[in-house]
Design brief:
Blueprint: H1 6-14, E1 17-19, E2 46-48, H2 55-62, H3 69-73, H4 77-81, E3 91-95, E4 100-104, E5 106-107, E6 115-117, E7 148-150, E8 160-164, E9 176-180, E10 188-193, E11 197-199, E12 206-221, E13 230-237, E14 246-249, E15 268-274, E16 280-281, E17 286-289, E18 302-307, E19 311-313, E20 322-324, E21 328-338, E22 343-348, E23 354-355, E24 359-361
Antiparallel strand pairs: 1-6, 2-3, 3-4, 5-6, 7-12, 8-9, 9-13, 10-12, 10-14, 11-12, 12-13, 15-17, 15-24, 16-23, 17-22, 18-21, 18-24, 19-20, 21-22
C-alpha cells in the first residue's frame, strides 16, 4: 500500500492556523452546518486523542449524534471512503463560532494560549495499526473475513475436503486433509460449512446463507496427477471440519477505518438474524440486515434502529377504533461489512434490546 498525506493536506487547507480562545463568543447551544448534527451543550473545548479512542467515542464527546462526524469536518464522500487518520497525541479542538471540529498539535505562541498549526505530513499506511479506528475493532475483527455470506450454490465449485487422515470423521490442528478442486495458485484456505439460510423478514424469501467458518488449512503438496488430491494440513481449527466442507482462499484482514456516516440514499431494512443463533441482541453485538451494496449501503454507514409501534384499541372511545403507536427509535447500527443484499452491523448505543424484525433505516 502506498504512502499518503490526505489528513494533513485536508486539514492544512481547512485551517492553516486556528487560535483556541476562551468561549466569550460561544453561542448558548453550539450548532453545526447541519441542523441535525447539533453539538452537546456541555461539549469540551478540546480532546487529546489517546490510544483506545475511536472516532465514534471522540465524536460522542462533542455531538448529540456521533455519526455526524463527517459533517462537522466538511468531509466529502471520497474522504469518508479513504478517511484521514487520527493518531494518539493529536488534539481535537472545538471551534464554537464556526461550529466545526479541528485537528492539530498545540504550539506556544507567547500568548499563553495554544494554537493549532497544521502543515502537510506524510504517514505510511504501515502505521495504520496505530490510527484511531471508527469503532472498537475487537468487536468486529472476526467478522471482517468470516463468517461469509454466500448466495445459493455459490460454493458449489469451491475446493472441497474429500478425505481425512486415516479416515477420521473430523480433523484438528496438525491433521492432514485431502482436497480436490482448482486452487488457482493459492496455498492458504479457510474452511466453511454451509450455514443457515437468511430469510428476508419482509418477503420471507431466502436471500443468502451464512457460511460457518471452521478453520484454516495450508497446502503441503499439490496434486501431481488428475486423480490425485492436494494434501493440506490444519493450522487452525475453530470448529470440527470434515469431508464435504468447502474452502475459500484466505484474504488479508482489511484495515477498516471508514468514518461513520449516513447513507447517500434513503435505506429502510430489517434485522434478519442475531449472530450466535439468539433472537435478541444488545450493545456491541452483531446482526445481519436485509439490505446491502445494491441498496446504497457501504462500510461505515450508520442506520437508526426502531421498534415497530404496536396496534392497540382505543379504550377511551366507545367504538374502540384500532390505532398504531409510533415506531420508537432506540439505538444505532454501524455497518461494517457489506454484501450485495445483506450487511453485517454492530449495535451501538442501544436503550433496549434489538430483535429480529426490528427496523434499521437512514437517520432522519
Amino acid at each position: 500500500m502506498k504512502n499518503f498525506s490526505t489528513a494533513a493536506l485536508f486539514f492544512a487547507f481547512a485551517s492553516a492556523v486556528l487560535p483556541v480562545t476562551a468561549s466569550a463568543q460561544t453561542p448558548t447551544k453550539p450548532v453545526s452546518a447541519n441542523a441535525r448534527c447539533a453539538f452537546l451543550p456541555n461539549a469540551p473545548d478540546q480532546h487529546v486523542v489517546v490510544r483506545g479512542d475511536t472516532l465514534w467515542d471522540i465524536s460522542g464527546k462533542f455531538l448529540e449524534r456521533p455519526w455526524c462526524w463527517p459533517q462537522v469536518w466538511d468531509m466529502n464522500r471520497d474522504q469518508i471512503r479513504n478517511p484521514h487518520w487520527i493518531y494518539p497525541g493529536q488534539i481535537v479542538y472545538f471551534d464554537r463560532v464556526a461550529g466545526r471540529l479541528r485537528l492539530g498539535k498545540p504550539t506556544g505562541d507567547g500568548s499563553g494560549l495554544p494554537t493549532v498549526r497544521l502543515s502537510p505530513q506524510t504517514r505510511s499506511t504501515d502505521l495504520a495499526a496505530d490510527a484511531i479506528p471508527a469503532i472498537p475493532m475487537n468487536a468486529i475483527e472476526p467478522f471482517l473475513s468470516k463468517p461469509l455470506i454466500v448466495e445459493e450454490n455459490e460454493l458449489n465449485n469451491a475446493p472441497r475436503i474429500v478425505a481425512t487422515q486415516e479416515g477420521s470423521v473430523y480433523i484438528s490442528v496438525g491433521s492432514k486433509a485431502y482436497v480436490r478442486g482448482d486452487l488457482k495458485g493459492r496455498t492458504v484456505f479457510e474452511v466453511f460449512h454451509p450455514g443457515k439460510p437468511l430469510k428476508d423478514p419482509a418477503t420471507k424469501e431466502i436471500i443468502g446463507y451464512e457460511a460457518v467458518y471452521l478453520g484454516t488449512l495450508r497446502l503441503l503438496r499439490e496434486s501431481r496427477a488428475k486423480n490425485e488430491p492436494h494434501t493440506f494440513t490444519v493450522i487452525n481449527a475453530k470448529e470440527e471440519m470434515g469431508v464435504g466442507d468447502r474452502m475459500v482462499p484466505q484474504e488479508p484482514t482489511p484495515i477498516i477505518n471508514y468514518v461513520p456516516h449516513a447513507p447517500e440514499q434513503s435505506v429502510v431494512g430489517q434485522i434478519m438474524s442475531v449472530y450466535g443463533g439468539v433472537t435478541q441482541a444488545g450493545q456491541n453485538q452483531i446482526v445481519t440486515i436485509n439490505r446491502g451494496a445494491q441498496d446504497g449501503l457501504d462500510r461505515g454507514s450508520v442506520l437508526e434502529l426502531y421498534r415497530l409501534g404496536g396496534l392497540i384499541k382505543d379504550t377511551t372511545d366507545a367504538e374502540k377504533p384500532t390505532i398504531k403507536l409510533p415506531d420508537e427509535q432506540y439505538g444505532d447500527l454501524f455497518i461494517f461489512r457489506v454484501f450485495n443484499h445483506i450487511s453485517y452491523g454492530l449495535i451501538m448505543q442501544v436503550r433496549d434490546t434489538a430483535q429480529i424484525g426490528d427496523i434499521a433505516r437512514s437517520p432522519e
